[in-house]
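dumping this here before i forget
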Amino acid sequence: MYHRVIIVGNLGRDPEMRYTPNGTPVTNFSVATNRTYTNANGERVQETIWFRVSVWGKQAETTNQYLRKGSRVLVEGRLVPDPNTGGPRIWQRQDGTAAASYEISASTVRFLNTREENEALRREEGAPVDDLPAAEDEIPF
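structure:
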């Protein structure tokens, strides 16, 4: 059996990278996906689902280096079930309402921002912009 999930959304916070005891890099970040629809009463409803994403290896280092809060990404990977429930991690918010956390182990993370959007995100935090990756249309082949 095999499954794959693909999401497109925005980072909710800056990525955090750490290393496993054997030296493998892993980067974690959260992604919000949004859906807007009109319900049966004619009211416009906005639905947001949050995903916790883990990226491993070289891609973890690249993701940590170039992504920032607000970056738009496409994540492809597999859902990681909660070991206790076999589904999403269930928890209670501070106000007592139930919530679920969906976790993805990413196989691919694609950066969807334009170079200008990346530069704007970097300027907001005061980081240098000259180490950003080149946009695809600037590749000379």
